[in-house]
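Internal QA ticket QA-208
Title: Verify multi-chain structure generation after dependency bump
Assignee: T.L.

Test input:
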Amino acid sequence: MNRTPGQRAGLDAGTVLRAALELLESGGVDAISMRRLADRLGVLPNAIYSHIPDRMSVLDGLLDLVLAQVRPPARGDGLARVELLMRRIWLELKRHPDLAPHLFSRQQLGPHALRLGHLTATWLAGAGLPADRAGQAMRVLMIYVIGAAAAELPPPASRPGTGRASTATFEAGLRWLLAGIATEIS
Amino acid sequence: MNRTPGQRAGLDAGTVLRAALELLESGGVDAISMRRLADRLGVLPNAIYSHIPDRMSVLDGLLDLVLAQVRPPARGDGLARVELLMRRIWLELKRHPDLAPHLFSRQQLGPHALRLGHLTATWLAGAGLPADRAGQAMRVLMIYVIGAAAAELPPPASRPGTGRASTATFEAGLRWLLAGIATEIS
DNA sequence: ACCTGAACACCGTTCAAGT
DNA sequence: ACCTGAACACCGTTCAAGT
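Actual output:
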């Protein structure tokens, strides 16, 4: 290393997360290792632990970074607005299909995930769903959206034609789900 | 090792997979390593490669072992029969929530996964869905079922109360999905 | 064909020490 | 507080050799 002990490298959590995003986009989740991250940042592996607790937290941060990109629809009425939001979440998540499953296994969700969940539940209630049903429907929709994103083929081979087909399937399922949810409106 | 070169340990793919299942049930997917597997089988790590190509294939085999346990409902009419099958798949998959996401990332599904998918599509078509819609609905249902299983809390802490709540949520979502799918019947 | 022995190229994480 | 240096306890996988 060019640096002697005590010299700063100017790292922070944001820098580490941005480097992790580059690794993710070039080689998928498996390419994200603390050591490769350190290499890319010009630092020794353990230096990262001054800014991020462990590798799991890197994936957590990455996921919230991805969800931060989702722009909730400004207007729209009832379930149509929810449908549009789900579509936007799916579009963002499916850019990293192998990262998406990580959302399932996390017990503590990030701020942006919580924000999108709360928004969804609020809009569902606003559309006329009873409070308990709104919470259930929100969780069901999230499960479907995350699952559909995870089901997209991993980065390696992006064969043509499957893109349109998977979009049609996702949207068909989303419509079916919302049609069923609509029957809960009194 | 007690064995000298050339002596057999009596391994085969089935034995390895059963040992992997034990590791899975005691410590989750992360506990499944080629070296721990070898330890448990009284063999050196590389001996496993005589029976299974790599670690990914172990998870593949494990998943198909789990899906082999699913007993398709013998009788029932139309969508109700599909609903029952989905419920059974979910019950089996959610026993290993951290293994379930692996079904998403696999490009080549195992024989039992294919069998269940084919059965589902057949029954959907039998209920009156057009062929292309039946295939779509099958994929949508699988995405939801696998996602719902993966969303179950990991093994470590099984706190009481969440079990019933998650079952209710899963079944509500399944009903909504099938209600939507039913509208496709001409 | 099925195993041992040995090695390669990695991992995540911790601890002590320097500034 | 933020980094280096060094180490610990792991990984998956490959290759050569023995029977």
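Spot checks passed. The domain at 66-184 of chain A is CATH 1.10.357.10 (Tetracycline Repressor; domain 2).
Status: verified.
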